Amino acid sequence: MRNSSRIILNTLVQYLRTIINMVLSLYSTRLVLSILGVDDYGIYTVIAGVVSMLSFVTSSLVVTTQRFVSYYQGKEDKAVVNVFFDNCFYLHFIVALFLAISLYCITPWLIDLFLNIPNGREVVARNIYYIVILILYISVIAAPYRALLVSRENIIYISLIDVCDGVMKVVIAVLLPYVTYDKLEMYVFLLLVIQLFNFFAFFIYDILCYQGCRIPNVSNVKRNVLREIFSFAGWNVFNTASVVGRNQGVALVLNKFFSTAVNSAYGLSFQIYGCVGFISQSLKNAISPQTIQAYGNGNVDRMKKLMYAENKYAFMLLTSVSIPVIFEMPNLLSLWLNEVPKFSVLFSRMMIISAIVDIATTGYSTANLAIGKLRLFSIWVYGIKLLTPVFSCIFLMFWNDVISVFYCFIFFEFLSSFMKVYCISKLLIISCKETFVQLCKEIFLPVSLSTLGSYVIVSFFEFQYRFLLTIGIMTVLYLFISWNTIMDGNEKQFVLNFISKKLKRI
Questions:
Q1: DSSP string for residues in 97-111
Q2: How many CA atoms lie within 13 A of 463 on its CB side?
Q3: Which residues have CB under 8 Å from 89's CB, separation 6+?
Q4: Are the CB atoms for 30 and 338 separated by under 8 Å?
Q5: Domain limits for position 24
Q6: Model confidence over 16-48: pLDDT tens digits?
């Protein structure tokens, strides 16, 4: 299969997976929130959030493993690929053990002194904290096997496991009312069981299907390889830690100034963010292995082409759906939840807008990973994000208004995206001014018309399922405008040929 065709196929597969998982996730969250109640769901959100402040290591190491495997696949050196995979696995193992021990040691301070846990639920909070630590440990160990699948562009199997994950979470939510034990503890325990399933699904498949993949050999662990991986992973961990630290830092600030009910609203906004964000993430996952392989093979021109394509099409996929969703957020949340926590609409809109701003320059992040020079990019792009909870705390101290968190979140996301363009222009010797002009040309017309059209529909129509009209019409309109303004003739012809070939096979 041609590289471009594989990107389209993998994107479509992930797009389908995203739609399925979106429905499953929204439905299961609605049931869980209804069964556990706002306070218990808030407890789970804030505790899982604290642990996920360190789970950034998992995603960082996945990217690190994928980068080195894809890079040396581009060089067509299988022996080196196996060496790097083995070293990455043992690095995952050591890091997972260190994180689990560290999190366990801070239990008394975190649960008893820092977090605002409702009276009478301290013991339950402690128990679910221990279970979430185990979930984190297993996810770190499973990470290299998932990364291997991504680097091999086996998106179909990954999507299948992700859908199974979503189905099992719905089953848990449906069965939860019949549990006689503490429902919150049982819910988190069953999430641990799902995590174990994911680990074995990836591990067994990789061992059986990929030649050279086996239980990692300790003799392949080499100091110089570990040093190279650790140097790259260090800055990559910083990148992901900055995003997670920003997100969970805001959660802790809200917990201090308000209550766990506000944390529920903030936690629910991440459900919306995850569902919408996966739409564009599907393209990113499909295109990034080829971007890294192109650079590893010395084909810088192809890497640049893929970088610009990722910016353009990831933004197009995300905004085509998310702009009408922003306008219909009150109706969507009311339909989704029996009880809509206060500030849920505000936080959900905040997360989607920040995702739109970030995705417009997502290709530059992938290009930076391919190049491997992370220091400057990490400090200026991701370090800026850490200022969000700091300034949110300052504004809340003086004004005590949640809207200030919204403004801080969006402002620093804009600043971070600006720095992406600046940093990558230095690494690849491209014009920063021309890049900004090109970005504005690509996004201005479709975004403006989609925003205006969504506003008109919401202002002049009022009925229960209006969101179907708004999202349906505006998504089609956005894609139509993008087809005629963003895509060039060669891109259009390629897409049409791809669709034609697939229809003939059917």
A1: HHHHHHHHHTHIIII
A2: 7
A3: 144, 216
A4: yes
A5: 3-505
A6: 777 787 788 778 877 887 777 777 777 777 777
